[in-house]
Amino acid sequence: MAKLKLNPEPTFPAKVEIHVPGKEPAEIEFTFKHRDREELKDFAEAMKQMEDVDIILNLATAWDLTDPFSKESVEVLVKKYYTAPKATFDTYLRELTGAKEKN
Predict the structure, then answer these.
(1) Which of 6, 41, 81, 90 has a CA positioned 20 to 30 A from the CA of residue 23?
(2) In Å, what is the CA distance from 72 to each residue of 30, 36, 50, 69, 94?
(3) Mean pLDDT, all residues of the chain
């Protein structure tokens, strides 16, 4: 079991499962930004004014795709894979808060 650190790492990795029409889901490993309780609350409020691309860019710092993690690449992801924004945010929130998915 991992030892708890009172000051967590500033980023953490997590795999996001993206639906691919007609195929098995694909996984993208994102490097997400850690937020404390207050920062998450502030971010949740700010998200109301953000587009999906900006939300993803504010959640993560990198991914394991060959394409660079950039605004242009995230725009393509959001445009081509409809479920990517929700899957990315849901994974981020689940990993950050430790919440389990319902079956």
Answers:
(1) 90
(2) 16, 28, 16, 8, 26
(3) 94
Strands, sheet with 26-33, edge to edge from the N-terminal-most edge strand: 11-18, 26-33, 60-63
For the chain, what is the domain count? Answer: 1
Answer yes or no: is 103 within a domain.
no
Domain range for residue 54?
11-97
Tokens read off for 87: 């899957």
Residue 47 resides in a domain: yes
The per-residue pLDDT for range 75-87, each reduced to its tens digit, is 999 999 999 999 9
Which string of DSSP letters, residue by residue, matches 45-62? HHHTT--HHHHHHHHEEE
| C-alpha dihedral sign at 59, 65, 66, 71 | negative
